Amino acid sequence: MRLFAYGLGYTARRILARLPGVEASGATRDPETARAWGRDGVAAWAVDDPLARPNLVGALGAADALVVSAPPDEGGDPALQRFSAALAAAPALKRVVYLSSVGVYGDCGGAWVDEACAPKPVSPRATRRLAAERAWRAFGEARGVAVDVLRLAGIYGPGRNALEKLLTDEARRIVKPGQVFNRVHVDDAAAIAVRLIEAGGPGAVWNVADTAPAPPQDVIAFAAALIGVAPPPEEDFAAARLSPMAASFYDDNRRVDVGKLRRELGYRWLYPTYREGLVALAAAREGRA
After folding, report:
1. Which residues, at least 6 apart from 196, have a Cβ–Cβ distance to it below 8 Å?
2. CA nearest to 220, candidates 271, 284, 173, 177
3. pTM above 0.85, yes or no
4. Contact 178, 123 (CB under 8 A)
5. How many CA atoms lie within 13 A of 1 on its CB side?
6. For an engineered disulfide with 44, which of 11, 37, 257, 270 has Cβ 3.0 to 4.6 Å away?
């Protein structure tokens, strides 16, 4: 199989690590990131490098499967915008896995949401995500390519977790009554993506999250107890000084239902809740100087 990853970030790295026998290549905005991937044996190119474009287009056109993790911008999905001709002509392409966000559901007042719930994005960021989802699904229908849309909760894992935030004094216990979030360990997100790439069958929309939505302040307190430090004090959301970006994450309140993954893929979580995930990360010495 030839796999092309459009976007070579945190989650893409874990996906490719689970596909050791695959001929992998990819694209990124950052030339240094492309060079780093090349040193790791993955052919990678910077999308804005005109000298790299022929090789990038050739690899994209030869792909059997495509993983898209690059976020959309005001112009739409960057892969579809920049390389529509190559994608339209790719003769071997059979599957696209698009990494989206549960943010497309908008604010649900803490209610449970499954894949049948109508998306109602509020933020421009989530609105662009939903538009990109629809663009990829339209592409799949036009080309006869299976498209899986993974609506991801907040991703955490090695190097990106509450333990590390406590170590660097970035952790805050912001309390907004009734507010809950789902999360998902990066290895669960990657394992689900790989399962879909390898399984074949028609594409679908999938909620990808853990099984225990929880208030963010509880997660920080649990992490602090794991590494034996005092948790930061609780701060009322109404009085907390947050950046507009940080505050925007509290606009949406929902509980993400992941029953479809269990029923239709038979998926068993590596880290069903944040507790198992953080315990494993603490055992790996995360969050320690």
Report:
1. 95, 97, 148, 150, 206, 265
2. 173
3. yes
4. no
5. 20
6. 37
**pLDDT tens sequence across 85-105:** 999 999 999 999 999 999 999
Distance CA 147, CA 152 (A): 15
Q: Please name the amino acid found at residue 273.
A: T
Q: How many CB atoms lie within 10 A of CB 242?
A: 14
Spacing of C-alpha 51 from chain mean position: 30
93 forms beta bridges with: none
- Main-chain dihedrals φ then ψ at residue 173, nearest 5 degrees: -105, 80
CATH superfamily of 2-156+184-210+256-266: NAD(P)-binding Rossmann-like Domain (3.40.50.720)
Contacts of 278 (CB under 8 A, 6+ apart): 161, 162, 163, 219, 222, 223, 226
The domains of the chain are located at 2-156+184-210+256-266
